[in-house]
Amino acid sequence: MRIHIASDHAGFDLKTAVAEHLREVGHEVIDHGAHTYDPDDDYPSFCVSCGEAVVDDAGSLGIVLGGSGNGEQIAANKVDGVRAALAWSIETARLARQHNNANVVSLGGRMHDLGQGLEIIDAFIAEPFSGDERHVRRIAQLVDYELRSHRGPDPIEPIGA
After folding, report:
1. Which of 38, 59, 62, 156 is surrounded by the most beta carbons within 10 Å?
2. Is 100 known to sit in a ligand binding site?
3. Could you tell me the pTM of the whole model?
4. Is 8 assigned to a binding site?
């Protein structure tokens, strides 16, 4: 399987280890950056690039990594057609695929040791979408909203200010 992967500086070491692991088990890994460790880099461009590649590459999956995985998931989800899920356990990774047909998983490099991170990612990749009617229906509702929504970019304002 082709796996697209991206990270910022906080997920850089995990990305390197994950990519090596995935290649060892036979996956093709496409790295969308960061390509060097830079403590001042910004994750959005890497995660958006990864998300776009997943959408354009039918049958592939994506992995976005950062310190917590939160921002990376948000960035990847800005790409139409991406369903990125923040996974913090094997169960959440499996459910993301089973129920949501997630095509990108987000993980926090500061939240898991390497062994846990690899187990979560392997579970995500191995789990198929259930195809249950209720899950198909719910995903269709989200796609319909994406197609109808023209809200424009989210404002960057402090909430409660």
Report:
1. 62
2. yes
3. 0.91
4. yes
